[in-house]
Amino acid sequence: MTEQEKELWKAFQNGSKDAFEEILRIFYRPMFDYGFKFQKDHDQLSDDIHDLFLSIWDRRAFLTPTANLKLYLFSALRNQIFRTKKRLPFVQELPGEDDDHLFQETDYAETKILRNEATDEQLSRISCVMLKLTKRQQEILHLRFFENLSNAQIADVLNISEPSVYNLLSISLKLFRNYWNVYFNILPFFLFFHKLLIISKLW
Amino acid sequence: MDKYNNYHIDFFLADDGFVEWVHSGKPIEGTRWEALLHSDPNIRPEFEQARALVMEWKGLPSQLSDQKLSHGIQRIMTSVNERDEVRVPLHDAYRIWFKIAAILILMIGLGWTVMRQFNDKNAYTYEKLTQRTESELVEILNDLNGDHEITLPDGSKIMLSKGSRVSYSKHLLTDSTRNVFLKGDGFFSVVKDEKHPFLVYTDGLVTRVVGTSFKIASIGSEVSVAVRSGKVAVYRMREFENNRKDDILLTPNQQAVFTTEQNQISRKLVEDPLVLRGQEQILNFDYVESPVSKIFESLEKAYGIKIIYDAETFSSCNITIPLREEPFFTKLDIICKTIQAKYNVSGNDVIISGKGCN
After folding, report:
1. Could you give the CA distance from residue A21 to residue A7 in angstroms, rounded to a whole number?
2. What is the 3-state secondary structure (H, E, C) of B118-163?
3. What is the number of other CB atoms lying within 10 angstroms of the CB of residue A18?
4. B216-258 pLDDT, tens per residue?
5. What percent of chain B has pLDDT over 70?
6. Complex ipTM value
7. Measuring CA to CA, how many Å separate B49 from each of B22, B43, B178?
8. What is the pLDDT of residues A44-96, one digit of tens each?
9. Do B247 and A177 touch (CB under 8 A)?
10. For an interface test with A, which of B22, B68, B76, B210 has the most A Cβ atoms less than 10 Å from its Cβ?
């Protein structure tokens, strides 16, 4: 935690609203981007962040000083999101019998990319590949590369052991690499020939 | 295998040092990456791709527009300000009365909850539940000297143990949910019908499925639900009634144990895990000098049980082993003995620990 963050946290615990607002300015956006990895509903997500900060404000006098404010806020947000998700109607909570959680389906990347050709350019290539992964895999890659957290810090946020982080990360990366190759090493060729075919037909 | 096959993008992406180096923007000269590239130029494409990826990742656009950001912050600050206005300082004399009132309310509340708990304990027995239900019921009692299979109107089957009984609605096929009340033990094979969830009520526990097979056993004040195939959700009766759907989701080889007295559900592995339906072929061959990680992976797939271990520690463990019909834990025993490791069952997961092989 930087000196500035330490000062801010201390001032906030003593009831300074300015310090609180400053903390919001620093962390609101990273928290939103992180939370988005497993709460895709923008309104629900900002509600969750709102409620979390309000409860942090209410409990400010009882909070212990944290070693790393960002990690603390991330894992608190994570809990908050899962708590609200649990309250959703139960019909949505029981997945169908057919989706097998052990086997991530490797589906039709081609059809999807053909359909989305126009939107693809707007989406970044990484987000495009990320969408093929599970929420948990997206989450860990986000923490690793967007937030640049170390394995130990990720373990802290997710509340799991470091070896599990390591395993999860390597599985996610392997999957990421496979999709990445399909999208950007093989598909361009495919699309190229596809276009050639169309042109040759026109002749 | 070609040794450079190991240098895929993910090799670089998994390396803390690599990511840090790209972020630092320092030149490649003098780093170990220079030496690596020098040793074989073939890895350069993957290396460059990994480098570009790390850069691109860092620069991904945020999901949040500036306008939404300031709106979100403002909303929080407004709520914080409102909260402070509510807290008008109370006169000291009132304060003491305020405290006394608060304590009184708390105690009454506490007493009421305890009473409720006490009264509730026996509210969900088979007899009470079947009396309370509005629909006309059909009851079947197994008074034979052994297990007896019955078939429900929807085609679902229940293997009832001796002395156990079930009740179900006369209009099972037209009701919105298929409700079944059980006293004793039964192994259920439920016909899939997503529009009509199948609910089994056993003491204070509700088991909800779409189509699957599982066993419910009640011994004394304990009810256990063990899943053979498909997915099953269990709820505590009280929460179920109050529409608080705090469910526990079970997959094959997992079981939930519910204790009526404490009104608590705990989750664990079944005593003798079986190979998942449709996964039988995974295990049916000899592993010759295979990395142990591969064997664990197959076991995970075949049984749907998560095996946690440190991949690095056991990376040099290669073993030869025939895996056949022996029980799951016997397999684990054999493997662990071979690589001099230990296993523990923690909740639903198996954790392997040891020093690795050299």
Report:
1. 13
2. HHHCCCCCHHHHHHHCCCCEEEEECCCCCCEEEECCCCCEEEECCC
3. 10
4. 888 878 889 998 888 888 888 877 777 766 678 888 888 888 8
5. 92
6. 0.73
7. 12, 10, 55
8. 899 999 999 999 998 888 887 777 889 999 999 999 998 888 775 543 444 43
9. no
10. B76
**Residue A185, both tokens:** 């090493």
Query: Chain A closest CA to B323's CA: distance in Å?
Result: 21
Does residue B192 sit at the A interface (CB-CB below 8 Å)?
Answer: yes
pLDDT at A78: 92
Task: For helices B44-58 and B16-24, give the axis angle rounded to 10 degrees.
Answer: 70
Supply φ then ψ for residue B327, to 5 degrees. -60, 155
Under 8 Å between Cβ of A76 and B231? no
A-B CB pairs within 8 A amount to 125
Q: How far is the alpha carbon of A126 from chain B, nearest alpha carbon, in Å?
A: 7
**What's phi and psi for B67, nearest 5 deg?**
-65, -45
Q: Where are the beta strands (DSSP E) in chain B?
A: 137-141, 148-151, 157-160, 165-169, 178-183, 186-189, 198-202, 205-209, 213-219, 222-229, 232-236, 248-250, 254-259, 264-269, 286-291, 307-308, 318-322, 341-346, 349-354
Is A28 in contact with B72 (Cβ distance < 8 A)? Answer: yes
- pLDDT, residue B129, reads 82
Of the candidates B235, B272, B280, B234, the residue with the CA atom closest to the CA atom of residue B253: B272
User: At a CB cut-off of 8 Å and minimum separation 6, what does B20 contact?
Assistant: none
Please answer yes or no on whether A170 and B249 come within 8 Å at the CB atom: no
Task: Give the mutation candidate from A38, A47, A129, A177 for the B interface (greatest B CB count, under 10 A).
Answer: A177
CB A40 within 8 A of CB A108: no
Backbone region of residue B135 per phi and psi (left: phi > 0; alpha: psi in -120 to 50; beta: other values) = beta
The answer to whether B351 contacts chain A (CB < 8 Å) is no
Out of A54, A90, A180, closest to residue B80 by CB: A54
Write the pLDDT tens digit of every residue in B36-66.
Answer: 888 887 888 888 888 888 888 877 878 888 8
Contact A96 B310 (CB under 8 A): no
Give all strands of the β-sheet with B349-354 in edge-to-edge order.
B307-308, B349-354, B341-346
Q: Quote the minimal CA–CA distance from A171 to chain B in Å.
A: 10
Contacts of A97 in chain B (CB under 8 A): 192, 210-212, 230-231
pLDDT tens, B188-217? Answer: 999 888 888 899 998 888 898 877 888 888
Name the nearest CA neighbour of A77 among A61, A56, A60. Answer: A56
Q: What does the pLDDT read at residue A93?
A: 40
Give contacts of A174 with chain B, Cβ < 8 Å: 10
Contacting residues of A for B348, CB less than 8 Å apart:
none
Q: Per residue in A90-131, pLDDT tens? A: 434 444 333 333 333 334 444 444 444 434 444 567 877 888
Q: B43 and B37 in contact (C-beta within 8 Å)?
A: yes
